[in-house]
């Protein structure tokens, strides 16, 4: 029984990975190009005039945030588009008729999103190494933050796709929520540069904690306590995964 | 043993549409069973509930004595579903589609590949195995869905209009294939709008209308209830009137005669009378398939009963009001 479940999970995960690898021009190349442009414009051209931030060159300072930005958007969009397409083409029914526990459906899709996020993270890191020498303060914190953040946003993408009734519905959240929160999440600046009130407002933005946790892993500096960041990520993950499980269990958006 | 045992199955959709009204249905293991009904009768809802695509409102369903509620993994493992609409990923290759489906049922990849070869060859799709599914013709897509449903070697195969839009040659080859797998012991439940298909393949039949099973019997005994058959005779020469005593008949045009023949009457009698009038019959055929005739009557009589009931209700309300 356990073996059967693991085969189902492996099948779904491989299928998800094959999907984004098959369309690599759409999934893997754009983040590499976008991030190269960020490094050229913000890092080289503008960054050289900004000077140091948090004790590091501006280029070094923004690298972790830019990697995190790519991880967040890709983990989210991978699952939201894949799951919604499966609903749209009705091939989600292949999973619903099979004797697969609901947690396997979630793990398979979220696992696919995490795999893409990790691959994108590696690609963007490699691109950034063309522009700047990367320092690594704590590899375990980098890995844990990367896994927790990509799982969180892959799950959020899944929940978005469960409720979505059209392709428009899966682009609303990334455009109007995710992008503004990411740009205002301390990717390009240190919170200490902001007036006190805006520092307080910024701390309501959950992405601040992910970017700073990740930056701590690379540079050893952060605007917030990295343990607090990791704790929040764990809590968010538990809440969203629980919510996704309850939605799939009730058949919301997938069973009539 | 029953392959399927449904009790009191009810489905009320959001908005109040009552698709199923507490139906009971049993299908014996090894049967080739037809579930027929007009559009919107409740066939697809029934199949949807059995295959876990639709949440039921009330009632129970058992697949080979496994409860869908308390033993869903065992129950689902017994079912292979061929749905009405193409529901595979159009961008995946045939091989990916069938091997993945086997994986969802816990079939190891090496075994899945062997089975993929077996079923894709049997259904004449092996040559196309590395092509994306979107490149296939309609008939090939239908066969692909059958191959996919068989990958975990289910004990029961549910086919929801498997031959819709398929040319007659492919349809016949699918009939042969389905007969073969049924002879090997797989229970088959079939819904179709081609009633000659149901008549030719199925041993037992249920007719559903407005969420109620209006007939559930063997195909033989259902067909035996047909009292009158209508034949169409193509005649040589032109005719304005024809006399046929003892038979309801109509001249459709100068060359075509339609005759109703009761079960106890002999067709020889019709030919004798025509011969006496020196009318030559060139060919003869049934006006419609026998099952079609019965199906229409059953569904119409159900609707008339419903209308009468509604009228009675209205009259009562008027009298009270």
TrEMBL record, chain A:
<feature type="transmembrane region" description="Helical">
    <location>
        <begin position="170"/>
        <end position="191"/>
    </location>
</feature>
<protein>
    <recommendedName>
        <fullName>Transport permease protein</fullName>
    </recommendedName>
</protein>
<dbReference type="InterPro" id="IPR000412">
    <property type="entry name" value="ABC_2_transport"/>
</dbReference>
<feature type="transmembrane region" description="Helical">
    <location>
        <begin position="61"/>
        <end position="79"/>
    </location>
</feature>
<dbReference type="InterPro" id="IPR052522">
    <property type="entry name" value="ABC-2_transport_permease"/>
</dbReference>
<keyword id="KW-1133">Transmembrane helix</keyword>
<feature type="transmembrane region" description="Helical">
    <location>
        <begin position="21"/>
        <end position="41"/>
    </location>
</feature>
<feature type="transmembrane region" description="Helical">
    <location>
        <begin position="226"/>
        <end position="248"/>
    </location>
</feature>
<dbReference type="InterPro" id="IPR047817">
    <property type="entry name" value="ABC2_TM_bact-type"/>
</dbReference>
<comment type="similarity">
    <text>Belongs to the ABC-2 integral membrane protein family.</text>
</comment>
<dbReference type="Pfam" id="PF01061">
    <property type="entry name" value="ABC2_membrane"/>
</dbReference>
<dbReference type="GO" id="GO:0043190">
    <property type="term" value="C:ATP-binding cassette (ABC) transporter complex"/>
</dbReference>
<dbReference type="InterPro" id="IPR013525">
    <property type="entry name" value="ABC2_TM"/>
</dbReference>
<keyword id="KW-0472">Membrane</keyword>
<feature type="transmembrane region" description="Helical">
    <location>
        <begin position="138"/>
        <end position="163"/>
    </location>
</feature>
<feature type="transmembrane region" description="Helical">
    <location>
        <begin position="100"/>
        <end position="132"/>
    </location>
</feature>
<keyword id="KW-1003">Cell membrane</keyword>
<keyword id="KW-0812">Transmembrane</keyword>
<dbReference type="GO" id="GO:0140359">
    <property type="term" value="F:ABC-type transporter activity"/>
</dbReference>
<keyword id="KW-0813">Transport</keyword>
<feature type="domain" description="ABC transmembrane type-2">
    <location>
        <begin position="22"/>
        <end position="251"/>
    </location>
</feature>
From TrEMBL, chain B:
<dbReference type="GO" id="GO:0005524">
    <property type="term" value="F:ATP binding"/>
</dbReference>
<dbReference type="InterPro" id="IPR017871">
    <property type="entry name" value="ABC_transporter-like_CS"/>
</dbReference>
<keyword id="KW-0547">Nucleotide-binding</keyword>
<dbReference type="GO" id="GO:0016887">
    <property type="term" value="F:ATP hydrolysis activity"/>
</dbReference>
<dbReference type="InterPro" id="IPR003439">
    <property type="entry name" value="ABC_transporter-like_ATP-bd"/>
</dbReference>
<feature type="domain" description="ABC transporter">
    <location>
        <begin position="4"/>
        <end position="235"/>
    </location>
</feature>
<dbReference type="InterPro" id="IPR027417">
    <property type="entry name" value="P-loop_NTPase"/>
</dbReference>
<keyword id="KW-0813">Transport</keyword>
<protein>
    <submittedName>
        <fullName>Nod factor export ATP-binding protein I</fullName>
    </submittedName>
</protein>
<dbReference type="InterPro" id="IPR050763">
    <property type="entry name" value="ABC_transporter_ATP-binding"/>
</dbReference>
<dbReference type="InterPro" id="IPR003593">
    <property type="entry name" value="AAA+_ATPase"/>
</dbReference>
<keyword id="KW-0067">ATP-binding</keyword>
<dbReference type="Pfam" id="PF00005">
    <property type="entry name" value="ABC_tran"/>
</dbReference>
